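fyi for ur records
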Amino acid sequence: MQNARIISTVSHWIFDHLVAMGMPRLTATYVNMLLLLSLVLLLLYVSRLVTRAILRGTAHRFAKKTATQFDDYLIRNRFFSIISLGVPLVIVVQALPIVFYDFQEWIKPLRTLTDIYLILLAIWTVRALLRTLKDYLKTTSLFKDKPVESFVQVLTIFLYFVGGLLIFSLLTGKSVWAFITAMGAASAILLLVFKDTILGFVASIQVSSNDMVRIGDWITMEKYGADGDVIEINLTTVKVQNFDMTITTIPTYYLISDSFKNWRGMQNAGGRRIKRSIHIKISSIRYLSPEDIQKLSKIGLIKDYLLQRQAEISAHNERKEVDSSLLINGRSLTNIGVFRKYIDAYIAQHEFTHKSMTMMVRQLEPTTTGMPIELYVFTNEVRWEKYELIMADIFDHLLAAVRYFDLQVFEVPAADDIRSLGLRVPDSSSLIPPVETMQN
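which gave:
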């Protein structure tokens, strides 16, 4: 009110002096309005600077004294800068009737514009609060891995929708309820327009309530080429940073409509599975003679097993009066069976295998590539780099150990294998027919 009285006093003083100077009253009216308008704009600029400086200065001093980060996020999201716009708005509302006193027909449209600005200012203020709340909740342990972004986006859309209704009501002079009633007939069109938003909102709620995906989870979705960590979950998309540092964007709805793999369970359990086979050449599988057993007894990991097992087999064969001149009679050890036992003992004593999870060495069905001996075990490291090193170390050792059991690893013959048989390997150029032949 004090600003209005000052502007009113200045208005009369300027008008009286312009008339006293011999200026026509109509011209003096326009000049008075322009001068007052310039004065109000200057006052708005100064009040904006002063108000923002006071609010931001006070907020910064207060934020330094508090331990919470909420006020820091308020400053980062320009909350105090936005509310400082309210003081110039109050000045404009008070000054309009005075500046445009002689132009009454302008006051109502200008007052409508100030009302619209007030609605927008309220939207900006609430939006800054929502963004601040989102940033703050992401720092808490309870909401750190939740899709807070999705809910904030929904509230923001609803906020703009309500603001649009109020602005429409101001411009048309009709009530908000009349507009909502009219929208009922166009609901099908609105559902079509906002289909992705609605589906994304529903999907975000399901993803959050069912705890399907969290920020920071490692997910694999081959259909979209996603294999990496979730860095953002918003209303319509989920952003995945792949391990090659590229970003894959997946529609949120597809997380509940399509299949994907979440590695969180593996990471939480503290063990990552190794499931890989060594293919043994079937022709290298045989029974072990007493000399072979004596030789293998020098291997520390299976020494006790061989002594105990051989004693059991000898006792059984004597009891059954088995003809031991042929190893096929009765019970005998095989090199592949002892090798499987060696792998069992090796992974049981390995420092990087998870002892409380499944550890198994199994023989799979023979194929054209040999007899698969599959290692099924979990490492106690879930980090990718460590996991790969552990797995490589285990199989480096096992592949080198195969020959001690007189076994061979199956592999497709290479060129040097063919040469070792005295056969000629044809030159690749000889496989190309002559040009004349090709033309014919």
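The beta strands are 218-221, 226-233, 237-242, 247-251, 261-262, 272-280, 360-363, 371-379. thats all i got for now
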